[in-house]
Known about the structure:
single chain, alpha/beta, seven-stranded parallel sheet, 7 helices, oxidoreductase activity, NAD(P)-bd_dom_sf, NAD(P)-dependent dehydrogenase (Short-subunit alcohol dehydrogenase family)
Amino acid sequence: xxxxxxxxxxxxxxxxxxxxxxxxxxxxxxxxxxxxxxxxxxxxxxxxxxxxxxxxxxxxxxxxxxxxxxxxxxxxxxxxxxxxxxxxxxxxxxxxxxxxxxxxxxxxxxxxxxxxxxxxxxxxxxxxxxxxxxxxxxxxxxxxxxxxxxxxxxxxxxxxxxxxxxxxxxxxxxxxxxxxxxxxxxxxxxxxxxxxxxxxxxxxxxxxxxxxxxxxxxxxxxxxxxxxxxxxxxxxxxxxxxxxxxxxxxxxxxxxxxxxxxxxxxx
Length: 267
């Protein structure tokens, strides 16, 4: 599904971005904010229906119309062929890739390492790490090959990459891997004008967060307490500002949290 456009005439006049996991949550908010800022945006994710709704001119619209600068590409980020098709469709529509918001992910089971089911671990690993690496690799190749070279890859880490919650071993371990991915992109991208940012987010209000902290969140001392949250629109605005930075500016690591959440004081 896509907006009406001739793939032989890519829209090169505007900057463009791919957002994975764009159907819901942080990805949806970021993709819509980039659209509002004038980007051509490809909405990627597993389920077509949420993507179609997110990419509509008016959020929640019940028709098949897309925003004129939006492209919808249902994508399983763990499938290398699907990721390559995503990139090809984006470039056919927009001509180049300026920004990847590498956001698709899953939370994983709420267990300790002793009770972690191997099949559940492999599922979280596939989405959070393999999917992120595949999308970053496809974006890197495109940014390296295009003229002029360059672009920005923003990896959605998590404050769990710095300080995990209890009973989150699968999620925390995979988000620590994002730190290595981002640093590697930043280093390897230097000759090609490619920069990378690990964006660690804490307690942005989404349906996923509501499920994790509804009624309170498990703390390191075993208690369950309410935690402050922040509007996801602030995160989306921050990503837009990162996306608009010139490529001679690098922001390797950025942390944004709800004020007064138990992050610096965990433990």
